[in-house]
Amino acid sequence: MSNFICPVCGKKLNNNTHCLYCENRHSFDLAKSGYVNLLLSQQPKEKRHGDDRRMVRARSDFLDRGYYAPLLRKLLETVKKYALPGCRILDAGCGECWYTSNVFEDLTGCGLKPELFGVDISKEALAAGAKRNRAIELAVASVFRLPVEDASCDIVLSIFAPFTGEEFGRVLKDGGVVIRVIPLEKHLLGLKEAVYDHAVENKEEPINAEGFELTERQEIRESMVLRRSEDIRNLFMMTPYYYKTGAEDQEKLARLSGLETEIEFGILVYRKKRQV
Q1: Strands 137-140 vs 36-37: parallel, antiparallel or unpaired
Q2: Which residues 6+ apart lie within 8 Å of 33 measured at CB?
Q3: Alpha-carbon gap, residue 93 to 142, rounded angstroms
Q4: Which residue intervals define the domain Methyltransferase in the entry (predicted)?
Q5: Annotated binding residues, as ranges?
Q6: In whole angstroms, what is the distance from residue 99 CA to residue 129 CA?
């Protein structure tokens, strides 16, 4: 049995070697690279359908070098506070699964044996994610229309991804939690100052969410030193700034052999309010 439901009729999906299928005979092929596409053709599409191959490769290479280890440590500590044996965890916007795979391995190593699955809009990201860990079931889908049963998840992870409170509330059990990671105001400010003449801080993200109670908030504020031009380029390419920056400003980074910048993250935990 799959962790996903049919995006056409909402019935549970079953697995066979080559596809997922429901009792109404809707069928979805499993890609050789390890994911299933559950994004309906009539759903809205963006100009770029999620992160492209260059962004995915840049982010994978950068994260694998451990620069965001302070965030990962705190994230793993937070997930373990709320995870129970056999809990069902959805990573909504899992990307190339660097965080997803680390959470899975950490909880499995503790004997909790989670059922962990993820969705993302980018096929390229999911293909990379499947290479990291074949035990995590992955689907191309929008976080605004999750192919997941009502009240079926204990935890939803939302890591640098859109926070879709209505959908998260639908798929979470009563009392379930969303663990959300957001950039804080000065996150990567040093990177922006190296590129732009007038760098600005990040806008503060709204943290209140209808139907949820904010139960925990942690902040991580550190600095990070990059000593390889390749790492500087990869960091820039994994941000939305890359596609909005002209060649002249990008050239400024290409000339750098080192960079120091702030890394600032917020970890927010929301508990779904119980239905009366």
Answers
A1: parallel
A2: 126, 127, 130, 131
A3: 8
A4: 89-176
A5: 6, 9, 22, 26, 68, 187
A6: 10
Q: Which of 220, 159, 226 is nearest to 187 (CA)?
A: 220
> In the β-sheet with 153-159, what is the strand arrangement from edge to edge?
36-37, 137-140, 115-120, 88-92, 153-159, 172-183, 259-272, 212-226
- Binding-site residues for S-adenosyl-L-methionine, in ranges, read 68, 187
pLDDT at site 242: 83
Residue 37 corresponds to which tokens in the numbers above?
Answer: 């596409």
Q: Which domains does the chain have, with CATH numbers?
A: 1-30 (no CATH), 43-272 (3.40.50.150)
Q: What is the pTM of this model?
A: 0.94
**Binding residue positions for Zn(2+):** 6, 9, 22, 26
- For residue range 222-247, list pLDDT tens digits in order: 999 999 999 999 999 998 888 788 88
